[in-house]
Write a structure and sequence with these properties.
By secondary structure, the protein is α+β, with helices and mostly antiparallel strands. It has 3 helices and 7 strands, in the order βαββββααββ.
Length: 119
């Protein structure tokens, strides 16, 4: 499965976003203002399957899971540092749910696998 892509937000012919709207969505106002064209790479988190826009203005390092050696988002990196963390990449969760033996509750960052009772 491809884990990288691209996003383009084109405000060359639109009023763009206000500074408050830009901040709400995690952009610098200049990136999505009237007349702006924003292009960036995207990456998919191996643990929660979220697509993350690689902000070209970011300076801090992006996280990599030390167990599966793949990119993980900031939310999953925080969850991974908790004492009760169980390493379970998204593919493993999907496989367990698709087997019919489990259902998933909670969020994709903190999933709870619930064993299904026999039908």
């Amino acid at each position: 499965m491809k884990k990288e892509g691209e996003v383009m937000i084109d405000h060359r012919a639109s009023p763009g976003l206000t500074a408050d709207e830009a901040a709400k969505f995690g952009f610098h106002p200049d990136q999505v203002k009237e007349g702006a064209l924003f292009e960036a790479a995207t990456m998919t988190c191996a643990h929660c399957n979220r697509v993350v826009i690689r902000n070209p203005l970011r300076v801090r390092e992006r996280a990599t899971c030390l167990q599966c050696n793949q990119y993980i988002c900031d939310l999953c990196d925080g969850a991974r540092r908790q004492p009760d963390y169980v390493h379970r990449p998204w593919k493993a969760i999907a496989d367990l749910v698709q087997s019919g033996k489990f259902t998933m509750a909670g969020t994709s960052v903190n999933p709870v696998l619930i064993p299904r009772k026999g039908d």
